[in-house]
Design goal:
about 900 residues, alpha+beta, five-stranded antiparallel beta sheet, about 20% strand
Length: about 900
Amino acid sequence: MTLVLLAVVPAFALITYSGFEHRQTLENDTLQDANRLARIVAVQHDELIAGSHQLLTSLARVPELRVDGSAEACHRILKDILALHNDYANLLVFRSNGDLFCAAVPPQGPMNVADRDYFRRTVTTKRLSVGELAFGRIVGKPVLVIAYPLLDLAGKIEAVLVTSIDFYWLNRTLAASRLAEGTTLTLVDNRGTVLAHYPQGEGWVGKSLLKDHAAFSNILNDGGEAAFESVSRDNVSRLFSFVPVSVTHLKGVYVGTGIPVSVADSAEHRALVRNLLLMGAAALLISALAWFGSDVLVLRRLRALAQAATSLASGNLQARTGLREDAGELGQLGRAFDDMAQSLESRMQEIERVGRTLKTLSAGNHTLLRGTEETALLQDMCRVVVEEGGHSAAWVGYAEQDPQKTVRLVAHAGIGRDIIEDLRITWSETGFGLGPTGTAIRTQKPSISAGASTVPSFEPWRTKMIEYGIASVLALPLKINGNIIGSLTIHSTDPGAFSEPEVALFEELADDLGFGIGTLRLRAEHERVTAAIEHAAYHDALTDLPNRAWLRRRLDELIVDAQQQRSTVALLILDIERFREVNEALGYQQGDALLRLIGARLGEFVADAGALARLGADEFAIVLPATDAEAAVRFSESVLDALARPIELFGFSMELQASVGIALYPGHAAGAGLLMRRADTAVSAAKKTGTGFAFPAQESDQGTVRRLALTRDLRRAIETDQLVLYCQPKIHVASGAVCGGEMLARWTHPELGAISPGEFIAIAERTGLIKPLTYWVVKEAARNLHDFAEKGLALPLAVNLSARNLRDPRLIERITRLCTTWGIAPARMPLELTEGALMEDPENARAVLVRLHDLGFELHIDDFGTGYSSLAYLQRL
């Protein structure tokens, strides 16, 4: 009896110990799952941060996002870009003071973020800034805010571009994980508040995960990993494992897995009870036999049973009693023991296979983290399955959408490549599509074929599979965003290679691989969009030539090189003469076609000598490095000759003429901006002189600056009545009496003193200020005529009009209203016009003058003889 008990007790201990070991393994597995998910979240988060940096850098170059432009255009651009990026909740542009300028998803009211840490860091450092994880005020869900400065040419903050990463992508990541029934995956902060939850995440986000909220904080207050049992919000007792996400911007955030205690304990409890009952029955039977029998056969069998149990307890899984052929009760007990040992051995073999599969899954995840190119990723994954999993072959095929529904081989590792290449595998429901690969793609579920050499659907491949000893095949569908793109197929020489736990792990590997492929494709799409934005920002849409922004950047680079090499840079700006006539005669479509032909001809001519850009409607620019004035002149003459060659366009043969402005570094300017302005002034000089090309005048910039300053000050002077109106008398020659006067505007600048009328009138003519200046003079003249009338003076006062006034459709209306306001008869305000103004547009001028004459205004022609008009035209007037 004692010997029997001594033989049975180790088996009881082994069964009990294995139960507790299984529970510990389950805890470790949940912790490893949480670790793996945390790494995936960290990698995806870093990729989103990097992608956001690229996106914001590209958006900073888009002109429509400047805050001095249209907010509506900015909103449309951001809205279109947001539609291409599902990982973002919003895209916004804030002014330098924190006020919202535009947003892809606008808020309900005004918004200012000047108090936000990320905004202050961006303004202070002028660099990309990442905020803390928080609930977005506009979108109302967890977001991570990233801000990027938009600088002006002086390097000052003009605006701040902001994007908020939508944490909904975490729900997709959680949903992509393969979970056991009742298992949950959760993302929480260190207070236990749920940030993302799967399944049924909508009812959990923003709430406490556990019913005992304080217990969670106490367990994770040191920021480390933890595994514990607790009751979750849905009143289910679960075994939880939590690990922190090792990302700077997600500090204090944990990924956790939870397995219901009922699920974790039930299977082990049943197995433990079953094994204990079995061993108890065996012990009772052996005890009874030992009690009633003591012959040699009984003792011998007991010793055999005890020895087998001892050997099994010591770890020899091949230990057997040798009593299988014995018909007695001890033989039955021996057979039961042997069956148990066989079951244990099979179980351990299965555990070994699952262990290899887990190792394969881990290696596959490392491969995913390192993958940068799709084909290489697939090849490495196949290699991992063969080398780490111990299988004979693994391959990936993509499902083509051709009529035959071909499965195209894209990656392979191991033996038997010719099985796939020699026979055309499909995913149709016929012949070559009935194998595991075609079935997995067609049904979107894993397909297993054990005993592959005898399965009827393997008839096309049977000979080759027998040759390579392939006994079982597992095919797993590859999915991207729910769409099947192909299959991962694994070949094994073991008929029982793919048990249910292994298939579940391989499904997880296939899901991770599909996610990795999708991530690589999304990254490639991001790079393509970024390149497209970059190209659009620096190229002309019509000719696809570089634009003004590109030219400015290229000039900066060439000037830096020239400074280092003590060399020169030449900039040529070409203005096509009379291009407007082409648009008016042939239409804008033909004009655009002509511009493309001009760009192509100039591109062929310039070739490798320099760089060509289009600056405006009919303006092109050529940059020539290491070119002096003489070489620039020769090049300009050659360009003009090239343009003079006839161009055929829609049946018309045209010879083009152009004016070229030449500016040189360092002779004409020390920077790109000034060099471009000097070349522009040189173009104007070339157009005026008709010489074909010209260099900028030395004082041109000073004159331009003065004109710009006077334009600004003249507008202010008109609006604030800083001008003075002088009355110059008109003398009747015969009698010497004063017969009238002419009202003349004079301007005394507060800093520059008296400004010549010829200078500020010319500025007014060029800038459009002549209209408000004329109306100011008419108003003051009407007021003076009223004052003269009250003092008994009935003298007329003349006012000057310009050619621009004659083209103003409101001229007559405004003059007559001013006369009505002050009670002045039109005859008392003669209107003087220069002969040159009349000759700019004779027909329109005559029509306006007829209407003014009919209203009673006297019309005087000033400076007659300088406008090339005839006496006959004077008679008509």
